[in-house]
Specification:
With 115 residues, this protein is α+β, with helices and mostly antiparallel strands. Helix content is 27%, strand content 33%. Helix 1 (2-21) packs across helix 2 (41-51).
């Protein structure tokens, strides 16, 4: 379950921000996890909940956005929406696709408490 490792990375980033920006706790964390990122969103949510106790992240509300994927079709020479890796081009039905969006995991923003 690599989602636990990803959750640890998110927590490390949040703790580094807490030290740098001098806030005490996180009230809300908003993540963006692209549909082509290879991340099981519910497993990530579970992992974040599991590692949160005792950290500045304890009790935080987590919102996870899942932007759709996109890929460059080398047959059509256009960017097309892609729901999942391995799906065909929506225009020509071909499989000569280079994913170019919806592949990342990033922290979008935090709402924090500095008291």
């Amino acid at each position: 379950m690599h989602e636990l490792s990803l959750a640890g990375g998110v927590l490390a980033s949040v703790e580094a921000a807490a030290e740098r920006e001098r806030f005490v706790s996180v009230k809300m964390l908003r993540l963006e996890v692209g549909r082509l990122a290879g991340v099981e969103v519910e497993a990530l949510r579970f992992a974040l909940d599991a590692i949160a106790p005792g950290t500045c992240f304890a009790g935080a509300r987590v919102e996870i956005e899942e932007p759709t994927g996109s890929a460059w079709c080398m047959n059509c020479n256009v960017s097309v929406p892609l729901a999942a890796r391995g799906d065909p081009c929506a225009q020509c039905g071909g499989y000569w696709l280079q994913p170019n969006g919806g592949m990342g995991l990033r922290i979008v923003d935090l709402i924090v408490d500095d008291a």
